[in-house]
Amino acid sequence: MADQNESPEAQEMAAAQDPAAQKNAQLLGLLHRLFGAETFTDVEEPYGLLTATTTRERIHDIIAGLQQDQELQLNFLTTMCGMHFPEREGQELGMVYHLHSLTQNIRLRLKIFFPIADPVVPTLTDLYATANWMEREAYDFYGIIFPGHPNLIRILNVEDMDYHPMRREYALEDGTREDKTDLFFGR
Amino acid sequence: MAVNDTLEGTRKIVEEAEVQRPNLHPLAPSVNDFNQELTTLNLGPTHPATHGIFQNILQMDGERIVSGVPTIGYIHRAFEKIAERRPFYQITPLTDRMNYCSSPINNMGWHMTVEKLLGVEVPKRAQYIRVILMELARITDHLICNGILGVDTGAFTGFLYLMDEREKVYEIYEEVSGARLTTNMGRVGGMERDFNDVAIAKLRAWLKTFPAVMAEFEKMFNRNRIFMDRVVDVGAISAERALNYGFTGPNLRAAGVDYDVRVMNPYSSYQDFEFDIPVGTKGDTYDRFMVRNEEIWQSLRIIKQALENLPEGPYHADAPHYYLPPKQAVYKNMEALIYHFKIVMGEIEAPVGEVYHSVEGGNGELGFYLVSDGGRTPYRLHFRRPCFIYYQAYTEMVVGQTLSDAIVTLSSMNVIAGELDA
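Structure tokens for the assembled complex are given below, as produced in the milestone run.
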């Protein structure tokens, strides 16, 4: 088991020797050069994967730019999914994009957050054919709307459903029952 | 031909096809009344040739497929939603039921994701045992796919040969975990049980007999004229389109891209083993079949290496807070009983963080994206299911081909409904 009580200095030393951390620093430098340093906020490296938050206005340009970039070739959209944080005022919904460069073996995670009242995100179907069903899934589960998507209908749930079930306000179990509280089920 | 899965797109393609085609017969319908000429064929949801619950609404011009709309969601069980309310150990049964043809891979992939989040280091022996089990699972997955591809082209014999071998692998699983299909054999930090002598004896016996059966199966199909007529140049996809569609695994490698998670991001000691990545050239059904056959041989190589070099030592990490003790220990040992309760009741809180971990599943990169807010359950869990990602390319691959081509293309893609719908 990794020692989590290590001092910050020791952790920094370990990061300097880690080739993955160096790779991430290079990638971040390139991102800043291509799209401007102010575009990315909350830059982190959880478990070695470079993560950055950007805005929905820029996300399409960034992913298109990374796809066309000859040096990095971040041209594989591994996956994307929606998220919901009800307590974050004005930034309730989010989309997470995982990109991968198959030649350089670099992974990048990009996130955007936007208000639940205006859940509109640019579509990536013009860049990646694979984005088609992933966006339909995000629409189905979170109600995120992708203007320009060729066929934005529900994918896994029934079509006459009138809510988006992965949002946090929909409890999995019947909230009125008292015999199934978290206390008894360890949740 | 561009494929658009909307009705307007369908009509446009049909109109273009109508204009391009010369009117050969004087009685043939004119360009304008294409509605009378096209047949709408519902392939599925429960068609015997679709190997699962998929619906494909195909527009047929005689025997040719003009366009199609795939519809999924028939066995959607809301795994991602359920996972938000369950402690980590209670999620393992969900992962087992995704790709049920190779459930150990899903299972190990999930445990590795949790280990990454918790920072648990797995001992070498457990890693090697996992490699053996995952490669066995890959073999059974490919055996089913290739055996059924044979059935779809009219050859039942190969399927029978391979099912027999699959049963023998299931007996090894049974020895290790007690279950055959949804094995649930991993634990956070290692394995539930060690590889016992009976399991090793069974594995060694199987490793001796299986290559002959596999060679005979290959002899039956690889250069078979009838089989090749049915599968060569059928359902082809270029490497560029395959990457754009997010293909991974054998389907991508058949198109000529040597991407394999085991090599690119090695997990569970895969860097210790020598194996090749088979690639195809054209990305057609024949290439997919051959890549899977070759991968079976490569998996056998890995299993042999892992079995020969199986390190001695513990089969699980010394992490009592996370490792669910074996049932026998729970009956006899007070500490084990306490931790058993703590873990099963979900008392253990995970650190805050987000993890993406991927393994090479039977069909491609199987990824787990786990967001933890420090609670006892994941805040958000997203599965990158390879089947879900590449099944949307199916209609593009079969447009312009015949219905019988569509069947073999579907079975060679190895779409598993449980993984598609999750």
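The beta strands of chain B are 39-43, 55-61, 64-71, 186-187, 190-191, 352-360, 365-373, 380-384. The mean pLDDT of chain B is 88. Further analysis is deferred to the final report.
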